[in-house]
Specification:
Length: about 70
């Protein structure tokens, strides 16, 4: 399944999704949790710490992903 198909699957909820969890990014990109935290630390996309986890801003992640896809 492509990343775009995974995004559509996650966003298939009846409400407009504004953020992703770390686990959703792990699933979308097929990388480890540690890799997601490294991307957050590098500032690749915006994330907000909420209680014990992070929420990655969807618009920021989508922009980053579009940039990465255009580099290929």
């Amino acid at each position: 399944m492509s990343i775009k198909e995974r995004v559509k699957k996650i966003n298939g909820n009846p409400f407009v999704k504004k953020s992703y969890t770390v686990e959703e990014i792990v699933s979308l990109l097929g990388i480890t949790r540690q890799s997601v935290y490294k991307l957050i630390d590098k500032g690749c996309f915006s994330a907000v710490k909420v209680e014990k986890g992070y929420r990655i801003r969807k618009d920021s992640f989508d922009r980053w992903l579009d940039e990465k896809e255009s580099e290929e």
